[in-house]
Amino acid sequence: MRTRLENAKRLIVKVGSALVTNNGAGLDLGALQEWARQIAALRAEGREVLLVSSGAIAAGMQRLGWSTRPSAMHELQAAAAVGQMGLAQAYEGAFSQYGLASAQILLTHEDLADRTRYLNARSTLSTLMELGVVPVINENDTVVYEEIKFGDNDTLGALVANLTEADCLVILTDQNGLYTADPRKDPSATLISEGEADDPRFESMAGGAGTGISRGGMITKVRAARRAARSGADTVIASGREPDVLLRLVRGEALGSFLKAGNTPLAARKQWLADHLQLAGTLILDEGAVKALGEGRSLLPIGVTEVQGQFERGAVVACRDSTGRELARGLINYSASETRRIARRPSADIEALLGYVDEPELIHRDNMVLA
């Protein structure tokens, strides 16, 4: 499996707060310089590298003298604003030592949920890579609010992997990789060297929260690997404190946990749909519609038993069965009020009920991705 890393041309490298700030002691300038050195070496080999870095809030906490991560959103935003200044300066200084320019990219979920902004972000990152600039990406914690937060930079790393169609997501953490259980609590836990990103067993193995500095934990890394796999990106979870970890990984050395992507990545448009973290509404389907979606068919109004939420035409909505299990999500052709009026009715009745007909389907199969 790991030979795929040797051929990877575009990598997303995500570094966590514990590494960036030396467990909250302040920005670890030596670590940042070391990653910059390795990324410069990868660039010299003709590989493209995008860096997703946590650490703004943790760095701001240190500068403000806070030992405990606050829970109030305005305090988190203030800490991010303070910390982001030092973080950007530190990375600029580290990369400049190796002749590389860097750029700060701050993203929110809204930037990727809106199709136009998604494409703009993709274009900007592509241009930066063409110019030989290393993008340093973080969540825009100074303006984001809870409802639109990615929630952790593991997820952000996976979204960037999908956005840029990267070959591999490398998640550097303070652990050696994914274990069969928490090695801090279970001495019999063993490291999982290789596996499939969509293996359902991994999520139960990775249970547990992150540290007081970071938000994630191993569970978010496993979920990020599964998300990155949707666009064909493999994931490696490895220790960021391992010497030359990035260079050794691309040589095929068995470090950390390698989680292989499947062989059928989603098309770009469907990948965008799959990456929506917040949805505008929900449609509850009857058994006939559930079967139709499973067979790859479009969703018709007659199969909808309930409409939840308020949304406009073109919004991304979830399709669920009667138990609440998500089956698919897609771009809906009618607003919530219109969908309620035509639900449980055949498509032939749409014009009589609404006074017009846009499409006979509520969601066309080309604008839908199965869960």
Overall description:
This protein has 371 residues and is α/β, with parallel strands linked by helices. The protein folds into two domains: 3-271, Acetylglutamate kinase-like (Carbamate kinase, 3-Layer(aba) Sandwich); 279-370, PUA domain (Archaeosine Trna-guanine Transglycosylase, Chain: A, domain 4), CATH 2.30.130.10. The protein has 15 helices and 13 strands. The protein has helices at residues 3-6, 17-20, 29-44, 56-64, 73-96, 109-113, 115-130, 153-164, 201-205, 218-229, 245-250, 268-274, 287-294, 336-342, 350-354; strands at residues 10-15, 48-53, 102-107, 134-139, 168-173, 194-196, 234-239, 257-260, 281-285, 304-308, 316-320, 326-331, 368-370. The strands form two sheets. An eight-stranded mixed β-sheet has the order 3-4-2-1-5-7-8-6, sandwiched between helices. The chain has a five-stranded mixed β-sheet with strand order 10-9-11-12-13, with helices on both faces. The longest helix is centred in the first third of the chain and has 24 residues, at 73-96. The protein is globular, with a radius of gyration of 22 Å.
